[in-house]
Amino acid sequence: MDNTLTTTYTFSPDTTQPAQACAVTETMTITVNPLITPTFTQVVAICNGDVLAALPTTSNNNVIGTWSPAINNTLTTTYTFSPDTTQPGQACVVNQTMEITVNPLITPTFTQVAAICNGESLTVLPTTSNNGVTGTWSPAMDNTATTIYTFTPDTTQTGQACAVNETMTITVNPLITPTFTRVDPICNGETLTALPTTSNNNITGTWSPVMDNTATTIYTFTPNASETCAINQTMTIKVNPLITPTFTQVVAICNGDVLAALPTTSNNNVIGTWSPAINNTLTSTYTFSPDTTQPGQACAVNETMEITVNPLITPTFTQVAAICNGESLTVLPTTSNNGVTGTWSPAMDNTLTTTYTFSPDGSETCAVNETMTITVNPLITPTFTQVAAICNGESLAVLPPTSNNGVTGTWSPAMDNMLTTTYTFSPDALETCAVNETMTITVNPLITPTFTKVDPICNGETLIALPTTSNNNVIGTWSPAMDNTLTTTYTFLPDTTQPGQACAVNQTMEISVNPLITPTFTQVAAICNGDVLAALPTTSNNNVIGTWSPAMDNTATTIYTFTPDTTQPGQACAVTETMTITVNPITPIFAQVAAICNGETLDALPTSSDNNITGTWSPVMDNTLTTTYTFSPDTTQPAQACAVTETMTITVNSLITATFTQVAAICNGETLIALPTTSNNNVIGTWSPAMDNTLTTTYTFSPDTTQPGQACAVTETMTITVNPLITPIFAQVAAICNGEA
C-alpha cells in the first residue's frame, strides 16, 4: 500500500477454499490528495477588556472553517482554526493556530490621604503613583469639603498604554459643637447631678470646674482628644437662695375647742398649704408647704408650727359594787379620785339599777361630766336540764358547775352511777343573790341476753343465721355477717328502743370454723407405656387415711382421686385430692417425604415429630441418592424418656435425557423437516421455537413430565446450521490525503 500516491489495487479470490469456487477477481483505486494549510493576518496585541473582533471564518487562501475557543478579550489565548473538510476542495486542509496577546490593565496605586477637619492644611496629591504611573489629578484641592479626586495616567509614556484612571476620596469632616440639655436653676443646697460626659450628639469629654450647688457657676466641656473636630462648649447653672416663711404662733386650746384654719399666706407673703388637716383633739405639728410654682417662691422651704391641745379632764371614782334588791346604799363622794369637785344627781335608790351623773364645779377648767351606774340585782334561782335515767354502771357525766341561767356553784354528794340519788347545787359565794337547787337522777338495773352455743363447723359448711331474740326474750341484731370460712366472734346488739330493753347490754358468741385438710402425696414420676406401676399409698404424707380410684392403669395417662375416711379421728374436715400419672407415648410419627428427581431441592427433615417428640436425623440429607434416614429422639427432654428411633426412606429418581439424531446443515432456503416429538429413547415432548430454514437456530425439546416414567426427564437442545449463499463483497476505501495511514 502507498499513502503518498493515487493507486489501483486488484483482489484475487482463493478458489481452493470451500464455497469459493465461483468467486472472481475485483479492483479498487485509492486516491491520495495533497495537504492545504490556511493562512491568516496576525491580530495585534490589545489591552485587557478592549474590543476584540471575531476572527475571520475564511482564510486569506479561501479556506472555510471555525475558530476555537471563543474570543476572550481578558486573557492572552491561542486560537485554533479547524477547516470544514466537507467543503469542496477542503478534504485535505489542515488546522492552523493564532495567538492573540491581551496585556493586563495597570491600576495606579496611592497612599490614602487621612481625613482632615474643615479648614485644615491639605497637601497637593503626587503626580507619580506608588507603582510608577505618571499623570495628573482633578479637580483642584479643596480643604473645606469632602471631594473625589481623579488621577488620569499619561498613556503616551512608555509602558503606560494600558494604565487606567484611579480615584481617591479625601474626607473633610465638619467642626462639631457638643450639645447638651440645659440644666434648670436650682435652690441653694439642692442636689446637683454631675453633668454628662457624653453630649446629646455623642461627643465624649470632661467638665470643669467641680460641680457647686451653693453658687451660680459657668462650666466648660472639653472634648476628649479622640473626638476629632469637636470644640469646647460652656453651660451656666444658676443657684437661687432659700426663702423661709414666717407665721404668728397659735395659742394652746382645750380638746374639742374651735380651732381656726391656719393662714395660707405667711407674714412674709409666701403662699402655700398646711398639712395635716387641723385637729382640735390632739397636740399636732403642722407643716407649711410653699407653692413653688408661685412667682419668686421656687426656693421657698417648708415651715412647721406645733399647736397644743390640752386633754379634757374626766373625774374618776371608785365603782360602787352591785347590791341585792333592798341592801343599804352609801351616798356618792363630791370630790373625784383625781381631785375634781362637783355634785351628783339623781337621789340614791337601793331598789332599782340607776345611772348617776357627776357635774364638775365651774372652776374646774377642761373637766367634763362623768356617770356611774349602780346595779341593784334581783334574787336568782339556778335552772338546770333534768338528767335522763341511766342504766346501772352506765357513764354518768358530772353535773354542770354553771346553771342554764349562768349561776356557778358546786353539787353534792359525789356522782353515783349505781344508785338513784338526789343532788344539791350550792351557788358560789360570788353568785350574789343566787339560791340553792336540787335534782334527782334515776339508775335502772342491767339486762344480759342469753343464747344456746353453736357447735364448730368445717370451712365452707352451711352456717345458719343466729336468732334475733335471745333465750330471755331480748330482741336485737348480730354483727358481723355470718362467715362459714373463718372462726369469728359475733356481737349481739340489743334494740334498746324495745319496751323494757333500755338497759339490755351487748352479748358475744364465737363460732369455730375448722380449716379443710388437704391430703398431700409425693407425685409419681411419668412411666413408659407398660412399665410397672405400684399401688398409691392409702395414708397421705400428712397422715390422712383414705382410698384411691380408679384402679391403676400402666397403659394410659390417668387422673386418680383420693377420698379421705372422714370417720377417722381429726379427719372430719379432710377433702378429696387428685394425682395425674403420665404414661408416655413411644413411637415418633412423621409425614412421608415424596420421591424427588436427582439434584432436586430436598428440605431438611423436621426435628420435632407430628406427635411433638424432638430429636435429630442421620445421615446428612442427600438429593442424589435414595437414602434411609434414622430419627434419634432426645430422651433427656421432658416426656421423651420412652421415645424410640424411627426411620424414613426418601427415593431419589435418576434424570432421563432425551436423545435425537442430529439434523445435518442446510443452505439458506432449503426444505427443513419438523423435528420428532418422541426421542430415540421414547421420551415424549415438544420443540421450540418454530422451524426456520433461513437462519442457524438452537431448538429446545421440553419433555411432557406428566407422561408415565417421564417425571425426571430433562430438556435437550439441537442446533441446526443454515449456511448463507456467498458473494465476495468489499467496502470501497475512501480517498486519503498524501501521507495518511
Description:
There is one protein chain. With 741 residues, the chain is mainly β. Among the domains are: 1-13 and 25-104, no CATH class; 186-240, no CATH class; 323-377, no CATH class; 390-444, no CATH class; 526-584, no CATH class. 0% of the residues lie in helices and 29% in strands. The strands form 23 sheets. It has a three-stranded antiparallel sheet with strand order 5-6-7, with no helix packed on it. A hairpin with an 8-residue loop joins strand 25 and strand 26 (354-360). The chain is flat, with a radius of gyration of 71 Å. The mean pLDDT is 91. This is Mucin 2, oligomeric mucus/gel-forming. Keywords: Signal. It comes from Polaribacter filamentus. InterPro entries: Cu-Rt/internalin_Ig-like (IPR014755).
Q: What attributes does this structure have?
A:
three-stranded antiparallel sheet; Cu-Rt/internalin_Ig-like; Mucin 2, oligomeric mucus/gel-forming; 741 residues; mainly beta; flat
Write a concise synopsis of the structure shown.
This is Mucin 2, oligomeric mucus/gel-forming. The chain is mostly beta strands.
Tell me the layout of helices and strands:
Layout lengths: L6 E5 L14 E5 L1 E2 L12 E2 L17 E4 L8 E7 L12 E5 L1 E2 L12 E2 L17 E4 L8 E7 L12 E5 L1 E2 L12 E2 L17 E4 L8 E7 L9 E5 L1 E2 L12 E2 L17 E4 L8 E7 L12 E5 L1 E2 L12 E2 L17 E4 L8 E7 L9 E5 L1 E2 L12 E2 L17 E4 L8 E7 L9 E5 L1 E2 L12 E2 L17 E4 L8 E7 L12 E5 L1 E2 L12 E2 L17 E4 L8 E7 L12 E5 L1 E2 L11 E2 L17 E4 L8 E7 L12 E5 L1 E2 L2 E2 L8 E2 L17 E4 L8 E7 L9 E2 L1 E5 L1 E2 L12 E2 L4
Parallel strand pairs: 3-56, 4-8, 9-13, 14-18, 19-23, 24-28, 29-33, 34-38, 39-43, 44-48, 49-53, 50-55
Antiparallel strand pairs: 1-2, 5-6, 6-7, 10-11, 11-12, 15-16, 16-17, 20-21, 21-22, 25-26, 26-27, 30-31, 31-32, 35-36, 36-37, 40-41, 41-42, 45-46, 46-47, 51-52, 52-54
Protein name: Mucin 2, oligomeric mucus/gel-forming
Organism: Polaribacter filamentus
Keywords: Signal
